[in-house]
Write a structure and sequence with these properties.
Elements: H1 2-17, H2 23-40, H3 49-60, H4 62-77, H5 79-85, H6 87-118, H7 129-158, H8 162-165, H9 170-211
Helix pairs in contact: 1-2, 1-6, 2-3, 3-6, 3-7, 4-6, 6-7, 6-9, 7-9
Subcellular location: Membrane
Protein name: LPAR4 protein
Keywords: G-protein coupled receptor, Glycoprotein, Membrane, Receptor, Transducer, Transmembrane, Transmembrane helix
């Protein structure tokens, strides 16, 4: 659990403290996720709701690995890959999905720590492995839907032609763009809210432990 705590501290710094990702934090995060995924395979690690969230958090960095592979392909093959696969937009959307997944999963872990500290008995029925797996799946589905929507909007923006402008389905194009813009705004506000909520949770936990 000490290793898991260090990993969580690293992830909190990477996603909820730093204003933007950088190469050092990304590299350390990938190494931490790789080590965590290997450690979770050990029979000594008990199956708890917290470990379920930590496992999903580590798996979220697979999206970062895919984005790095895309960047290498773009650098190796140049514009041919970029124009064919829309790699720049896909790479950015994968990184966005990774950030949103990580922030939501870290918030779930913070909420669980808050419940354990202040409502250990009352929240026991909620803090189950089954509920943690269900919550993780819901988060993955929501973020995957967001990624698909944003990628679809980027593809439509890249393939805009005069024929499309006169198409009877033009309203679908505008609707998709509006939905993507709204989603980006909501994601920004949600990110700020999650930071505030996490600070509150750990502020309460810290002073509760200090008083004891």
């Amino acid at each position: 659990m000490k290793d898991f705590r260090r990993y969580l501290v690293l992830k909190y710094i990477q996603y909820l403290i730093l204003s933007s990702p950088n190469s050092i934090s990304t590299f350390l995060g990938l190494l931490g996720s790789l080590y965590t995924m290997v450690t979770l395979q050990s029979a000594k690690v008990s199956s708890k709701s917290t470990t379920v969230f930590i496992s999903s958090l580590a798996k979220a960095d697979l999206l970062v690995s895919i984005s790095i592979v895309l960047e290498v392909l773009m650098w190796t093959f140049g514009d041919n890959v970029s124009s064919m696969m829309f790699s720049p937009a896909l790479q950015q959307n994968l990184l966005t999905a990774n950030t949103h997944l990580s922030c939501l999963l870290l918030s779930c872990i913070a909420l669980e720590a808050y419940l354990i500290t202040f409502f250990p008995t009352e929240s026991r029925c909620l803090r189950t492995v089954r509920n943690a797996r269900l919550t993780s799946r819901v988060i993955w589905v929501l973020v995957a839907t967001e990624c698909v929507l944003l990628q679809g909007d980027d593809l439509l923006q890249a393939s805009t032609t005069p024929a499309l402008q006169s198409s009877p389905y033009l309203w679908l194009f505008h609707l998709s763009s509006l939905a993507a813009a709204l989603l980006r705004s909501l994601s920004y506000l949600l990110g700020i809210l999650l930071r505030i909520v996490n600070v509150y949770f750990y502020y309460k936990i810290f002073f509760s432990m200090s008083n004891r």
